[in-house]
Amino acid sequence: MRVDILTLFPGMFAEVFRHGIVRRAREADLLRIEVHGLTRWTSGRFQLADDAPYGGGPGMVMRVEPLVAGVEAIRGLDPAPPRVALLSPRGRPLDQGLVSELAAEPRLLLVAGRYEGVDERFLDLSGAEEISVGDYVLSGGEIPAMVLVDAVARLLPGAVGDSESVVRESFSDGLLEHAHYTRPAEFRGARVPPVLLSGDHAAVRRFRREQSVALTRERRPDLYAAWVRSGPGSRDSSFQETTP
Ligand SMILES: C[S@@+](CC[C@H](N)C(=O)[O-])C[C@H]1O[C@@H](n2cnc3c(N)ncnc32)[C@H](O)[C@@H]1O
After folding, report:
1. What kind of fold does domain 2-155 have according to CATH?
2. Which of 50, 111, 144, 178 could form a disulfide with 60 if both were Cys (CB 3.0 to 4.6 A apart)?
């Protein structure tokens, strides 16, 4: 997969993409990331990256010309047409379903906004969709773009050493993940649940599943209700859940 990122702050990305699974995916040529500074498409007195909003109001708005010019130039850098997304608090929420969808794309072009946001015409002219990383406002789209790339990289086949861990983690089956423990078996009187030391794999699976369901029910009733609605076909028949 190729990911292009268009940003006013290209220097923010290098360190983040130099570690962990993203690094491994890049080294294994599963993921190519190219970061492009928007100022490359701004020049001269009337080609600033931002300007005051029409109609008045606080802050500045990112201008449409450099954004469109940047997206058009970056599109042409590879024959694969990219799925273009503007990171935006009013966008489609990034959840594990959308992450899987994005991970199946050959190419993404992510645009990071700044200031009060971007000139609305950019969306129509570029065909960009909007993606949000949560119901809060950050000062720029760079960290959301990093979040998206990190989540997508984990799903690229071969990027995570033990592919089971991706299949089993939170949200992959609509539930939050169970708790984890490692040595020692007891620390300051706090013991690891005995079933995990029993060697009974079926019992361990059942225990973890029950814990996943209980945690989801307690902490995320929205996810729990969706999981219950998803029907018994997608659930472990060994566990009887109750409706909230
Ligand atoms: C200060 S924010 C603009 C917020 C905008 N005025 C609003 O109220 O929706 C600047 C940029 O940060 C990025 N951003 C902020 N919060 C985000 C979020 N939750 N998800 C994705 N991008 C976000 C977007 O690219 C946005 O254009």
Report:
1. Alpha/beta knot (3.40.1280)
2. 50
Judged by DSSP in three states, 23 sits in: helix
The residue nearest atom 1 of ligand 1, judged by CA position, is 139
Cβ(87) – ligand 1 distance below 6 Å: yes
Fold assignment, 170-234: Trp Operon Repressor; Chain A (1.10.1270)
Residue 58 makes CB contacts below 8 A (sequence gap 6+) with 116
SS3 163: helix
Indicate the domain borders of the chain.
2-155, 170-234
**147 pocket-lining for ligand 1 (C-beta < 6 Å):** no
Please give the Cα distance from 19 to 161 (Å, whole number).
15
pLDDT at 234: 56
Please tell me the distance from the alpha carbon of residue 131 to that of residue 86, in angstroms, as a whole number: 6
**Atom number of ligand 1 nearest to Cα 132:** 20
Write the secondary structure of 70-131 as one string of H (helix), E (strand) and C (coil): HHHHHHCCCCCCCEEEEEEEEEEECCHHHHHHHHCCCEEEEEECCCCCECCHHHHHHCCEEE
**Residue 201 structure tokens:** 């794999």
Tokens of 229: 């609605």
- Residues shown for the chain: 244
Query: How far apart are the C-alpha atoms of 224 and 166, rounded to whole Å?
Result: 20
Model confidence pLDDT, tens digit, residues 208-238: 999 999 999 999 999 999 999 998 655 554 4
State mean pLDDT over 102-115: 98
The protein residue with its alpha carbon nearest to ligand 1, atom 20, reads 132
Q: What is the pLDDT of residue 159?
A: 94
